[in-house]
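Sequence only, no structure available. Ideas?
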Amino acid sequence: MIIKPSTTLRNDYNAISKLAHERAEPVYITKNGEGDLVVMSLEAFELREELFRLKTTLAIAENQRLNGEKTYSLDDAEAMLRNYISEKA
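Reply:
I predicted one. Tokens follow.
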């Protein structure tokens, strides 16, 4: 965990930016010794967002499975995709 005081962000933005990009993890910014902000590179943020969307999709699918909704084997899914593609061609 990277923790820096707000004065570092104010006085040396480039150092915080460089650190966030090099480490690809959040930089926690404190104000008066208390947590205040989190700064991260755009790439790290987008990766976290994509992982969050994937986990959400998987959680929904798992919940549907647990509730008894119809599921498909890998072979069935592949056959359906091949059929769909051949119909579109």
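The mean pLDDT is 95.
Hope that gets you unstuck.
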